[in-house]
Structure formats: structure tokens, C-alpha cells
Amino acid sequence: MKGNHEMSNQLFFRALVARATEAIAVIDMDDRLLYVNSACSALLGYAGAEQELLGLPWADFQLAGEKDNPTVTLFSRAVAAGWQEELRLRPRDGQEFWAALTAYPLPEEDKVALIIHDITARQEMAEQLRLSQEKFTKVFHTSHDAYILSSLVGRRRYLEVNQAFLENTGYELAEVIGQSSLELDIWANPAEHAEFTRILQEEGAVHNFEASFHRKSGVEGIASMSAERIEIRGEACLLTVSRDITARKRKEAQLRRLQRAMEQTGEGMIVADLAGYLLFVNSAWAEMHGYKVEELQGKPFSIFHNARQLREEVSPFNELVMSAGINHGEVGHVHKDGTTFPAQTTITLLKDEHGQPNGLVITARDITERQQVEQELRRSRQELEKLVAARTSELQAQIVEYERAEQELQRYQEQLEELVTARTAELQAEVVERTRLERQARELLERRVRQVQLS
């Protein structure tokens, strides 16, 4: 009866093993397979062909790289007290997989039982986690942004910071680890710290929060921070990524001042990239062309000119800009309604810190009224010139007439002088004759008087 019972148990356990979902095999002292269940044969690529596996050495399925000591058999390792290992196996189809192998000796037999679990998915997850941790570690320590890992328990001390944090704040690592942001007086504005804490408590994360911070030297900076709650080994922690935006904020302030100046200037002004797309437009430029500023962002500069202007004026104008760096002159523009107008235009080539062109600054002033005034001045000048010419002609005619009259008068004067001279000569002759006659008459009278006296 006892023998029948043992036989019955063996059959039961053999049936149980054969139907088990776990891969089970038995090897002999030479590591050759003596038995495999259906799950094991399927795992090793022999589904439905268990008999083909029997007698094959276990080493056929174990990768060479997994055999740390090929002279030591699996049987010898497991026969004493069992053996466990995670290793890679290569089944019949060559598709390698990770397996957790448990080997233990069978009682009173020179055999070892193997239980094999396919842990490929777990190993892949572990590998992905390892790679993720490795990437995180590299990012943490090599990023130009400051990474801060701090505890959310107790004093909220710093657990780890990267080199960027130390460079931004001026601290040494030993001065930071174990201290809190409040103890180091990192927060320059308590109200900002309170707001940061409120958002974190209510939402569990903070994104792009801008706040002032103190460097070790006491100089203030500005940082943009994002933070998220995480858990490390059961401890609530805070991972914060902080970017020093002090220089950017300073540049933004300068840019705002520049934009205000550009807005307040009376001339239209735009900034465009080298492809001709608008980066900035002031209101004077937009109004001059009949647009609103928001209509023009990202538009091409060519919308301010018609085809003829682009071909005959703008293209040659820009060629000189690219060669000389700047150009001034009159260029035709087009209003939104299609009307054209002349503009006094200046284009300056922008360059980066390496001297490479990276944009254009264009200023323009509508000179329609100026041209109208100039045209009116030209017309008035032309009319004045005509009047002057006519008056000059009249004066010249009068001068000619005056000269003719003067010549005539001169001739009359000369004739008069001749007459006067002749008459004077006659009168002088008459005076001489009269004087002679008077003298003769006196002489005759004197003779008569003497004759009377004598008689």
C-alpha cells in the first residue's frame, strides 16, 4: 500500500509540475536536461517538443558572457545548498531574454531542479530606471540651470545642489548642504517666498515663478524657478530648477526703455530679420502705412512696397546697405489702401557680437507734404523767374529807349551848342561892328563940334 501511495504522489506531483505555469527543468550531474515541463520547453523555444530538449546541455542556452567560470557546473553550484541568479538565456529562436534562475538539489537524487522566470520586462524596466537615473544625474550636475534637492520635512534643509547653483549664489557646497534657504537668506523678498510656498501647497508644483534672490556677496539677482514635490526613500522632498535671469531681465528693461524711445520718436521705425520679417514696429510706422501695430508682427517688409518699387528702388537700396552697412535716401512706399507716397528712408545693418549681420533697423518719414511744399516753391520760383524775366525785358526796353532819348538829347544839345556858338559869334561880330560905328560916330561928332567951335 505504501508503495502505491508513493507512486500516486509521484504521479500527482509530476502532473502538477507538467501543468505548472512556471518553467521547471531537471538536470543531471553533467548539467544535461533530464526533464522539462511544457512551460520550460516553450520558454526555451521548443513548445510541444519537450523530448527534443532531453539530453541537451544546459550550457547551450546560457550566454557565454554569463558563464563567470565555465569549469564549474550548475549542478555543483546548486547541489550543496541551492543557487539563485539572474542571467541572460538564448532560446532556440535566438531571442535573448533575462531569467531569474533558482536551482536546488532533489532529495536523495543526483539531480538538480531548476525554476526559471522570464524577467525581461522587469529587467528592461530596471534598465530604463537606471538610464533615467543616470540621465537625471548627468542633467543635475551638468545643467547650466541650478538644480536643488531639498527636504520638505523640518527645516527644509538642502540635500543636494549642483555646480550651477553654487556658481549663481557664490557658495561652496559645504556651506549649503544641511542648511535651509531661509538660514542662508536666499530669498530677497519674503512676500515672494510666501507666494511660492502657497502655490506649492495648493497645487503641488510651481512653474516659472520669478523671484529675487541673494547671492553670498549680498548682491541681488532674479531667478525663474520651477519646483515639484517628489519622494525619495519615503521622505517628502522638493526638486527645484532655477535659472538665473538677472542678465535677461536687465536686457528686457533696456529693451523696454529702447522700445519706449522708439515709440516716442516721431519717425516710423521697424526692426526686421535678414529675411525681411518684422520683429518690431512702432506706432508711427504703422500709422504712416495705415495699419495697427498688432497687424504687422511677423509680416514681411515687402508689404510696404509695390512690385515696381521693390524692383527699381528697394532692391538697389538694400544692396548698398549690405555692402556699406547703412544707406539713406528717398524710397517709394505703399499705404494699406494702395496709395503710394515718398519716404525719406534710412536702413542700418545690425550685427551680432561676432560682427555677423543679423537684422535691419529701418526708419522712414513721409515726405509727401515736404515734396508738395518743394513743388510749390519750385512753381513759385518759376513764376517769379518769369516775372523777373518779363520785368527785366521791360527794363531793358526802357533802358534802350532811355539811351535812345539820351542820344537824341545829346544830339539836340550839340546842335544847340552849335547854334549858340554861331549866334554868339554873330553877336560878337555885331558888338564889334556897333563899337566901330559908335567910335566912328563919336569921331564924326567930335569933328563937327570942333568945326562949329572954329566957325
What does the model show?
The strands form 3 sheets. The protein has a 5-stranded antiparallel sheet with strand order 2-1-5-4-3, with helices on both faces. The longest helix has 87 residues, at 368-454. Strand 13 (326-334) and strand 14 (340-351) form a beta hairpin. 48% of the residues lie in helices and 25% in strands. The protein is of the alpha+beta class and 455 residues long. The protein has helices spanning 2-19, 38-43, 50-53, 74-81, 120-142, 163-169, 173-176, 190-203, 246-264, 283-288, 293-296, 307-324, 368-454; strands spanning 23-27, 33-36, 83-89, 97-105, 112-118, 146-151, 158-161, 205-214, 220-232, 235-244, 268-272, 278-281, 326-334, 340-351, 357-366.
How far apart are the termini?
247 Å
Bin the helical content: 40-55%
Q: If you average the pLDDT, what whole number results?
A: 86
Q: How would you describe the shape?
A: rod-shaped
Strand-residue proportion: 25-35%
**Order of helix and strand elements from N to C terminus:** HEEHHHEEEHEEHHHEEEHEEHHHEEEH
Radius of gyration: 59 Å
| Unreliable stretches | none
> What's the main sheet like?
5 strands, antiparallel
The largest sheet has its strands arranged as 2-1-5-4-3
Compute the number of strand runs: 15
The number of helical elements comes to: 13
Structural class estimated from helices and strands = alpha+beta
Chain-wise SSE layout:
Elements: H1 2-19, E1 23-27, E2 33-36, H2 38-43, H3 50-53, H4 74-81, E3 83-89, E4 97-105, E5 112-118, H5 120-142, E6 146-151, E7 158-161, H6 163-169, H7 173-176, H8 190-203, E8 205-214, E9 220-232, E10 235-244, H9 246-264, E11 268-272, E12 278-281, H10 283-288, H11 293-296, H12 307-324, E13 326-334, E14 340-351, E15 357-366, H13 368-454
Antiparallel strand pairs: 1-2, 1-5, 3-4, 4-5, 6-7, 6-10, 8-9, 9-10, 11-12, 11-15, 13-14, 14-15
